[in-house]
Amino acid sequence: MIGPYVLPDDVFDALAAGEGDRPAVLLLRRARRSRNLLLLRRALDGPCGGAAEAAAGLLAAVERVAPEAARSVIDGPAFGTWAARTLRDCPAHGRRGCAGRDLAALTVLAAVRAAHPARITVPVRDGRLALPGLGTVTGLGEAPEALVVVEAAADAEGTPGTSAGNCRVRVRVLTAAGERVLPRDPSRPGHGWQPVAVLDARHRGLTLRVPLETAAPELPALETASAGPAAWRDLLRQAWELLVENHPRRAEELAAGLNGIVPLPAPARGVASATSRHAFGTVLTSWPADPERLALTLLHEFQHSKLSALTDLVTLYEPGGGPRLYAPWRPDPRPPGGLLQGIYAHLGDLAFWQERSGSRHGPAQADAAWRLAQTRAHVERGLTEAAAHVRLTALGTRFLERLARTVRDGDRGGDRDGDRDGAGAGGGSGGERLARAVARVQAGDEAVWRLRWAAADDAGTERLAALWRAGRPAGPLPAQDVRPATGAVAGPGPEFGRWAARQRGAERARPAREAADAVLAAPDRAQGWAELAAAAAEEDWPGADVLRARTELVRDLCARLTARQAAMPPGPPDPLASAAWPADPGVGPVPSGGGPDADAARPPGTAPPGPPDPLALAAWLAGPTVGTDRSGGGAAADEEGGPGRDPQARGAYPARGSGHVGRGEAGPAPGQACGDGLAVPAESGSAEAPRAPARSPGPDPAADEGPVAPAPPGPGGGFDAGAEPGGGGAPGQKTGVSMSQNARSPLAKTSATG
Questions:
Q1: 282: which strand partners?
Q2: Beta 273-275 vs 282-286: how paired, if at all?
Q3: Residues 6+ apart with CB under 8 A from 169
Q4: What does the pLDDT look like over 591-613, one tens digit per residue?
Q5: Is the pTM of this model over 0.90?
Q6: How far apart (Å, rounded) are the C-alpha atoms in residues 720 and 276?
Q7: SS3 category, 590
Q8: pLDDT, tens digit, for every residue of 673-685?
Q9: Sheet hosting strand 135-137, strand order edge to edge
């Protein structure tokens, strides 16, 4: 009998809070195994079924005699990505032949671990035979395929586990050019044989054992990384000690769920890391250089895996809402799933920097406190964006509420854990100064992001220009369109990076009036708008929220008015505008530089002298009453055109019951991209492509803030870091998905326990 997975309330709430425990991770792992089996069944029923049939038969045979050996392959780094790629790519069958053939390479590992005799044909690409989990045979020339023969002694017994070693198994590789025999123990290197190394670490009785996966199809080989297996093993042991000592609950999660590390080529700066939505527990990362960075990368990326698996079981949001949203840790627009993935992954960063800011001293403590404050600000801003623009289901609302509570609880514990001498993000003059500096950087970053990606409606902007010239209130703001990102996306540039770095030591922002004058002198300089948005927010100018959240509108309106004024010959006032002026006498004085009623002697309906002042424009756009109140506030229409609403004055997390509650019944499409993360693949959706230099001061291996380059295509065809809608669970206290916990195995007519 097939039954659904049931996610208990306490497990859901624990996962939403950012953690969980070993049983929760094992539940997610079993659910992902069932999903992989269902994907395999679909692949066998599809156009690639014939190409994968022999390999599926071998896997079924192994499952009957050594279930753990088969499960270790189905749970492994390459299986889910293979299934997703096969379902997505194979109606066309690609240039290299049907992707279904690649299942054969995966099944060799199961046969070796079970010491099960096998003969299977495996594709050869560029003279290399990649056997995920085992290793790579090189120097095979032009052979398009090879026959892999696994021979076992009569008394051989299977040794399932992470290691591929089995000294009683003989593996032969036959091609038209001859025969290659692998070492008796496949875990040892040999002539033309590069084994997948197994990394192990143990501390305080907790063991982590994972392969350094270098044989997955189309992934970088080990020689492209910066270090060999011995260096990785030593670094992992140090990082594991750090995690077990300081984050024991999360270390237990990693021990239960982490199943592979894939080395990536190092970027020019920083650390590149990624996760695949289809490879639960697999972390792709470049050489992290020190144990702290590796520990942080593992925490961050495993959060992505947990959320991807959770969204197989429940639906957190519905289609609709904003398709491209602002995420302060990314240089590019994110889909709703990508935004949620980024928020969730940064909970790992938050826990890491919380502990480090409380355990360090001197400059190292100040650096950790900065990163803690910055990460907290990122998460809070992401929660605000999600609450405003993601159509959350009832479970999605509950998920974000619990997540936000974790952030609030961590903030209250700041003085205890991370604010020595007032240097952290909590109380004290040092903490306040740090918070102001982080707020400046974030305000400037968002302004630059808006200038780059958002575009205001031309007709709406022209309407606003006419209203400004007529001295009338702005009314509802025009909608904005956020352009999609294509290809590699660089960060905001070195000029912004230098400005952001200076904020760490700055007491206050550049005066807003001075920043506005600089913008008027160079209106095309994005850095000037960043400084203006940061200064206006810090000085609480009327319209500061508009300068930050609708920067592109203020800039375009300023340019339009300047161009119109330069082209307009002197003459009598416009009679229509003159007649309209008295209709709205409530527009109050605004800061110097122009604007309605800025000069009582100016005839109504005539353009103000000099270029329009961006501070005055922002105050005017924010609402008809803010001009007289330097304390800020005032209503502004948001980007969806609703009058009387401040575009960014929402809470940092959704209130209970807020959001768009839906039934949450839509399940994920196989191969659907998931979105955040640390870097974006070209096809992007999910796990992040390699991350590179940080946008904020100093290198930051986990803030996801730097230029983004496409990730190397993985066996699943693209590594994602953010999740698309998942699961099919309806909202309620208990949730389930139509996925068998005891699903009948698509491998054969035997049961495969999920």
A1: 260
A2: antiparallel
A3: 112, 115, 150, 151, 152, 156, 184, 186
A4: 334 444 443 334 444 445 567 89
A5: no
A6: 5
A7: coil
A8: 333 433 323 333 3
A9: 129-131, 135-137, 193-195
